[in-house]
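[audit] Reproducing an earlier prediction to check determinism. Same input, same settings, fresh worker. If the tokens differ from the archived copy the diff job will pick it up downstream; this log only records the rerun itself.
[audit] input (128 residues):
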Amino acid sequence: MTTREDVRSFLDRLDLPVESVAEDMWVARTTEGAELVVHYAPPVLVLRVRVMQLPGDAVKASELTRMLLEFNARDLVHGSYGIEGDHVVLTDALELTDLDFSEFEASVDSLSLALASHLNALTPFGEK
């Protein structure tokens, strides 16, 4: 089983700024400036990025939700978009049973790529 110390070493190997915010939780800032929360919660490791606030307008929120579901079905290898409170989040959960650095790095890279490639499509839905 991948330990908390293993996860911390994975984060160090990514060579990103990382801050410990709780015993089993870290925040890493990606090269694009996104805050990636990494939560060691056996039996899984949860990775989460807050993407944006949901639009207040119901029509825009509905259009955004449809777009996010299409991204989930078409574009994402690791993780999925979801709604947490009034924010859109991008999350992934990895089993700790035999998690290695390559799998961890692939998940982080996939989330970063999704954010970068979907940014132009999501921007019009942001609150002004």
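[audit] rerun output stored. Observation attached for the diff report: Helices lie at 4-14, 58-74, 101-122.
[audit] end
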